[in-house]
Input
Amino acid sequence: MAEQSNDEKIRLLKERLEGCERVVALTGAGISAESGVPTFRGQDGLWRHYRATDLATPEAFAENSRLVWEFYNWRREVLAPLHPNPGHLALAAMESRFPHFTLITQNIDGLHQTAGSRKVIELHGNIWWVRCTGCGELTEDRRAPLPELPTCEACSALLRPHVVWFGEMLDPKILDQAYRALDTCQVMIVVGTSGVVQPAASMGATARRRGAFVAEINLEPTPYTDIYELSILGKSGEVLPLL
Ligand code: BJW
Ligand code: ZN
Output
């Protein structure tokens, strides 16, 4: 069969979404790229310049919390002035279009919420929240940057970014919410993720096994492209509004 054009694929996905009751979107760093948020992998990806193991692991934080906080404070400063793009806005609009729409994101930038999405499952946490390493207290703190080594008002212990580092478990309650949506969705759209970080990477495959029609929107193919029904190559900020 001849390869379908992008227009044809977009038309097919729109048809699939017509009258759909249960839809899931899973987003990754690519959806925020057009807002100016650096992605992790790829040409200008964050991990090209910084080693993940030096900065995004609990071991790194235990050994050099100052360096890890420097990295996160820099990222908070980069993110603070940025705005959602048409991709975020299109997903926010989908929330009211479908009776059951679940937005699952790996992103920690909070841009989906700024775009108006009210229910967002944040698999990897949120950079605007901090957690106490002593008493566990969770607080929203939008200052960018925070003090070099921020401490808890209640117990004076060191605070950490409320994000999920490599080797850390994702919150089981949050994972459970995500899998419940994946279990029953009819259509899933996987947007702007390289599909290498588990368990998020295999969520599209899970939905596919459970009978969903899965479409991917990305600038390039990913390790999962072949098992999805559709792969739309393009910018999420351009493709999503067409849906
Ligand atoms: C566009 C675009 C445009 C660009 N439009 N598209 C099973 C097998 C093997 C290993 C493991 C496994 N299970 C767990 C692991 C270990 C590990 C893991 O997956 N490692 C792999 C790298 C091999 N996973 C974990 O440790 C997770 N914990 C866990 O599972 O606990 C249990 C356990 C532990 C240990 C062993 C076994 C079990 C936790 C993962 C936490 C990830 N944390 C980070 C950092 C968050 C905080 C921070 O930001 O600092 O999360 S890493 C980083 O990667 C971040 C992202 O959310 C995540 C995914 O990245 P994403 O979103 O895909 O971004 P990119 O940059 O990779 O891709 C961007 C894409 O967009 C590209 O494809 C572009 O083409 C595209 N694009 N512009 C459309 N305009
Ligand atoms: Zn505390």
